[in-house]
Amino acid sequence: MRSSGALYFDVEVDAALLGYPLTATLWLTVAPSALESAGRALAGHPQVAFAAATTGPANLVANVGCRDDAALYAYLADDLGGLPGVRQVETAPMIRTLKRFGTV
């Protein structure tokens, strides 16, 4: 059933318990010619919990987890800033999560 997709497991873990208390959503504006390579690079970053292509001026979205605000800054400046084709990044740190898939 799992191999056919009829059954799947959705596991949710509080990132703070894994040492990543600061989470943020990022909207990246990437040159179309660099979209695939930037997406593949994001998929390989350990900070990234989720990444997807989207439409509009911000054509990549990602959720990241970092140890603190200095680590988020370093990730934005070094890891994302060093990716070819990345033109702009908008960041929204998560202050609090009110609802998740799992139960409390």
Automatic annotation (TrEMBL):
Protein name (record): Lrp/AsnC family transcriptional regulator
Molecular-function GO terms, alphabetical: sequence-specific DNA binding
UniProt source species: Amycolatopsis mediterranei (strain S699) (Nocardia mediterranei)
Pfam families: AsnC_trans_reg (PF01037)
UniProt GO BP: response to amino acid
Domain Transcription regulator AsnC/Lrp ligand binding: 27-96
GO cellular component: cytosol
InterPro entries: Dimeric_a/b-barrel, Tscrpt_reg_AsnC/Lrp_C
